[in-house]
């Protein structure tokens, strides 16, 4: 009788069973001292994530320390940068299509290092068809990044961001205001009527390719800087991209 009942489960019941088995992969509810990371650090919501602050030389379950990770990330890097063509729909950029040299200086901002230990990953049994739950522990490292270009478009422009690293490399996304922006970058850009600049955006990663990049260094810094504009429908638009490494 039991076998007969299981063989004739309704589609609704089967969906409920898949959901139940999948939720079992998440483990228990978060403990009092555990939180799920925010937008900069979010992992798989089905994982149990415990957030702590660690010393730079403290060994974690990643088998590396934050100091080990920073040793690769920090320093001064000289990289060729391409100023990409900008759609005339939003703005024109006088340096579009040119190449310059970027000096990138990266340093830890001395803020406490966050370690997110993520557990609970597993795959459901055979025949279930649900995806595996992958839980990845990671550091969150505060970095100061200073950008200067040889063409003087950017002069000692400083960003601060939170880099997420699984022990080697990592990536970040951040913005800064346009106040006290040194260099000719803003003067090189002419906005179309009705467009307003809101921020300077930076996406960067060590050993990580960037969206829209045409070249990527698996052993170095990759990234782009761009001017962010207000979008007509509320969605921001980025223009005047400077990508590195250049082609």
Description:
This protein is mainly beta. The protein is about 10% helix and about 40% strand. It contains three helices and twelve strands, in the order ααβαβββββββββββ. The strands form two sheets. Strands 1, 2, 4, 5, 6, 7, 8, 10, 11 and 12 form a ten-stranded antiparallel beta sheet that branches. A two-stranded antiparallel sheet has the order 3-9. Strand 6 and strand 7 (about 155-165) form a beta hairpin. The longest helix has 14 residues, at about 10-25. The termini are far apart.
Structural class, from helix and strand content?
mainly beta
Oligomer: single chain
Query: What is the number of domains?
Result: 1
Task: Bin the helical content.
Answer: 10-25%
Succession of helices and strands? HHEHEEEEEEEEEEE
Q: Give a count of the beta strands, DSSP E runs of length 2 or more.
A: 12
Q: Identify the overall geometry.
A: globular
**Which residues sit in consecutive blocks of at least 5 with pLDDT less than 50?**
1-40
Radius of gyration: 23 Å
């Amino acid at each position: 009788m039991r076998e007969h009942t299981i063989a004739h489960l309704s589609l609704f019941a089967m969906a409920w069973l898949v959901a139940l088995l999948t939720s079992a992969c998440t483990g228990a509810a978060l403990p009092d001292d555990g939180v799920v990371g925010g937008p900069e650090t979010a992992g798989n919501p089905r994982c149990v994530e415990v957030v702590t602050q660690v010393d730079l030389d403290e060994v974690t379950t990643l088998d590396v320390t934050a100091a080990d990770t920073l040793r690769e990330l920090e320093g001064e890097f000289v990289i060729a940068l391409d100023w990409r063509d900008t759609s005339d729909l939003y703005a024109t950029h006088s340096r579009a299509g040119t190449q310059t040299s970027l000096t990138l200086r990266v340093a830890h901002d001395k803020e406490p290092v966050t370690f997110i230990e993520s557990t609970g990953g597993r795959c459901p049994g055979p025949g279930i068809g649900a995806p595996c739950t992958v839980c990845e522990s990671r550091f969150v490292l505060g970095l100061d990044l200073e950008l200067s270009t040889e063409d003087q478009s950017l002069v000692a422009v400083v960003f601060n961001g939170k880099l997420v690293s699984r022990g080697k490399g990592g990536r970040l996304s951040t913005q800064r205001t346009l106040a006290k922006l040194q260099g000719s970058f803003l003067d090189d850009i002419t906005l179309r009527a009705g467009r307003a600049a809101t921020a300077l955006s930076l996406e960067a990663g060590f050993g990580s390719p960037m969206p829209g990049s045409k070249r990527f260094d698996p052993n170095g810094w990759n990234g782009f800087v761009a001017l962010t504009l207000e979008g007509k429908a509320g969605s921001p638009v980025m223009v005047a991209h400077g990508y590195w490494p250049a082609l």
